[in-house]
Amino acid sequence: MSTTETQKKVRWCWRRDLAAFRGLSDRERTGFLLVLEWFENFRLRHELAAGREAARSFWRDEVLGKGRQRETWQLEQWQDAIKWYLAWLNACAEDGGDHRSLPERVRAAVNSAGSRRGLALETKKCYRSWAARYAGFAGDEREIMREETATRFLTSVVDDEDCAYSTQKQALNALAFFFKQVLGKEEPVFNVKLKKTGARVPVVLSQGETQRLFGALENPAPEPDTGQTEGTSALMAKKHNARYGLVARLQYGAGLRLSEVVRLRVKDIDLDRGTVTVRLGKGDKDRMTVLPKRLCGELAEQIERARALWEQDQRDGVAGVYIPGALARKFRKAADSFEWFWIFPAKQLSVDPESGIRRRHHLHGKVYNEAIKRAAQTARIEKRVTSHALRHSFATHLLEAGTDLRTIQEILGHEDITTTEIYLHVATGVHGLGVVSPLDCMAA
Fold first, then answer.
1. In this predicted structure, what is the pLDDT of residue 76?
2. Taking the complete model, does pTM exceed 0.90, yes or no?
3. For domain 207-425, is the CATH number 3.30.450.20?
4. I need a labelling partner for 388 at 20 to 30 A (CA). Which of 9, 257, 349, 368 fits?
């Protein structure tokens, strides 16, 4: 055996070892297998490292979460299964083995290659997710390196999953990246034909619905009874959600994407000129959009609140905010300067997933998006409302007010005007469809 082979870690597999374990009956082994597959799927879905922390999260969120009622025998069996798994991990570590499954190893390799290539965090998440799915599909280290296997996987995505054309392209690009940057194949060929899907009409709110949504964000419905008085509960809910109102009105008023509005920095808002500069937007492009005049006063107050938080972080010695890639090397003091601080900073410090540094992040997009959904329910808007509906509504209302399509394209940052033309299908009035129903033309 060569030196390379002896230095290579032995691959451990908990499924194989569970099948060979003699301390369980067949019935117990089946129960252990079911709960551990459930745990592994949870862990991989949330990209958690194998260990006690992942087990705690699983037990809290999946086993006991949302008031689920479990039988005593279930909890005991599941607990024994998790204990067996943790003991297996310890044995693996003592032996110097590698417990990671093939999807985990592939995901780590893609993430490392993406970091070397300077890919954005969201792009790396997308690529490693698809690569991990592909590894699970292939199921074997030899099989995963074959272009024919990748072709079969992509064909199943196109033919069986009925997903959008953009999703199909994501899968194709992710596998192309994996074969080129991880496996070292210069020009991989996948004999798959992507399936075009029809254009989908975006969800657009009327101006009245938009105002009701803002009102629900500023004055949210009180939470269910928690032992507090109604006035106290409503006051706390209003205080907790009021900041989302400003974020939503800015997103609508400037036509921003979700990621763009939460990542705004102090230097990106020009109150005097009435502009918002979007840095590193979709396609790694910068652009400028309009700042609603009616928000200037509120944004000035928000900037001062952000300043107070920044000053507190400076006194506490907190690491500066995240600065992307080459900018962090070019402007070494930018992370600690106020102009690079977030307009909408998070309330709590968190660990940067890229560097492992504990610092102040911006408002989490998922938290804000959930607040939008709750507000839509409170406002009784019977549509599938997400934060992106505010951007769609911005473009549609501009078109209905007479703004030309080319200008809207520039403001939204669309590379192709055909992307902007979709709003022609949802706009109403003279500048939209411009059609009056024949039923409305009939005499009473």
1. 92
2. no
3. no
4. 349
